[in-house]
Amino acid sequence: MRGQTEELSEFEKQRLANIAERDALLKKLTLEAQSSGLFAKSSPKTTTTTGAKKDATSSRSKKKAAPRIKKEDEAPPVRRMSSRLRGITADSEVAKRKADVAFEEAQNVERAKRMRKSDFFTLDNMLVSGQKLSGDALIGIDVVTKGVAKPYERTFGDEDVKKTTDKELKALREEMSNLQLWDQWEPNSLKMTPERIYTMTFHPSETKPLVFAGDKMGHLGIVDASQKRPEIGEDEDEEPDASITTLKPHTRTISSMVIPPQKPTHLYTASYDSSIREMDLEKTTSEEKYAPETRSMDEPISGIDMASDDPNCIYWTTLSGSFSRYDLRSSKKSNSITEWQLSEKKIGGFSLLPSHPHFFATASLDRTMRLWDLRKLSHENPEPVGYHESRLSVSHAAFNTQGQIATSSYDDSIKLYDFANKGIASWEIGHKLDDKEMKPDTVVRHNCQTGRWVTILRPQWQQNPQSSIQRFCIGNMNRFVDIYSSNGDQLAQLGGEGITAVPAVAVFHRSKNWVAGGTASGKLCLWM
C-alpha cells in the first residue's frame, strides 16, 4: 500500500506540472493575441475581499444587473471580431493567391515555350550555341537482357572473336571490334545538345563523318568529326573544345530525322510539337513542311521515313496510332494528306522496306509488330499483311534493304523476322501471312529496361553494308553499343574510356563502318 501511495504521489506531481505548463502556454498565447490586436486587453479587476465577492455573486444570481450608464467621453469597448468580419484578409490567403497567380503565369510561359512555331527560320533564329556557320560550311563542298545492368561489364569480347570458326563472320567480327572511339576528344566533353538525346543520324557522305542529334526539348546538335584538335599554346591552360553547333528548330522533342540520299542537302526532322521541318544544310534555314491546321491541335509525331525512290513523299506515325503520307510538292496540305488509323495506342516506331516501299512495319504500345501493304490499305478497316504479338510493348520495327525486320521490346528481347526468305519481293496485292509465318526467326535476349531517364533502345540497320552480312546496332545498358548480324550473331560490343552514361541512341552510317551513340546528358560517343 505504501508503494502505491508513493506512485500515486509522483503521478499527482506530474499532473500538476502539466497543468502549470498548460497555463503558462495559454497566458503566452493570450499576450501574443493582445499584442496583435485580435481583442482588447481586459480591464484590471478591483481587489475585493472574499465576502464581497460572495455578495456580488449572490446578488447577480438573484436579479439582473442594472444597465451601465455610458459616458459621453468614454470610448466604446473593443469587441473581439474575426478578420473576415473586419474585412482583413489573412496572410495565408494573400500568399495563396499570390502563389496561384505566379503558378498560372509560369504555366502560360511554359505553354508558350512548347507551342509550335511555324515561322521560317534562318541560322540566327535557331542558333543556341556553337559556331555561327555561313554559306555551305555545315556540310562542305565534299558533301552533296533482363535484370539489373552492371556498368562496363562486357558480354562479348576478344575471346568470342577468336573462337569463331566461320571465316567471313570472323573477319567481320574483327573489323567491327577494331572500331575505336574518336581520338580527338573524349566522349564526356562532346556535348551536342542541352538535354537528353532522343534521335540521331549520319549524313550519307562518305568523306566527312557529320553527325546530327535531336534532344527532348527540340534542340538539334551538329558535329563534324573530321575536325582536328587545335594545338595548345604554351600560355594556354585549358584544352580547346570541339566545334559543335546547337540549333533549336522545334519546341518539343525531336523524335525522328531522315536525310534522303537523293537530296543530301536536306534534313527532315519530326517532333512532338506536331510538325515536320525541312532544313537546308547549305543555306542553314529551316522551313515547316507539315503541321496540323491550327496550333491548338496536338498530334505528336513519333517517326518519319522516306522512300528511297521518291524524295518528295514523306511518311510518319503519331503517338495516337495513326499513319500518314504527304507529298511535299503539294500546296494544299489538307487535301494531299492521306491518313490511316492503324492502332488504338501509340506507334513508337516504323520503317519502310527500302526496296519495296509499299511495305512497311509498325511497332506499337499494344504489344504488336504489324506488317502492312500500302497497295491495299483500307481507311475504314485497315488490315495488316500479318502481325506478331509480344509479351510486352514493342518499341521499334526496323526494315533493312533485304526485307528483314529487327524489333526491340520491353520483354527484354530483340526479335528478327526474315521476310526475304518468305518471298516478300514477289508478294501480290492482298497477300496474307498466318500466325506461324509471322513468328520471329531469331530471338536475342537483350536488356531493354531503360527506365524513365534513358531513351528507349531501338535497333538501326546499316542500309548499305560493304559485305554480304547485314548488321544493325543497338544501345546496351552496360554502357556499350552492341552490333548484331541479321541472324542474331553478335559482331562486336563497342565501348571505351570516357563513356560515363548509356549510349542509348545508336545509329550506323549508311555505308561506312561508323557508329554514333547519344546519351541522356546530350553527349556523343563516336566509333570509326
Automatic annotation (TrEMBL):
Q: Which organism is it from?
A: Talaromyces rugulosus
Q: What is this protein called?
A: DNA damage-binding protein CMR1
WD repeat start-end pairs: 359-375
Q: Where is the composition biased (Basic and acidic residues)?
A: 282-298
Q: Where is the composition biased (Low complexity)?
A: 40-51
Which taxonomic lineage is given here?
Eukaryota, Fungi, Dikarya, Ascomycota, Pezizomycotina
**Region described as Disordered:** 36-86, 282-303
Q: Which PROSITE patterns match?
A: WD_REPEATS_2 (PS50082)
Its keywords, alphabetically, are:
DNA damage, DNA-binding, Repeat, WD repeat
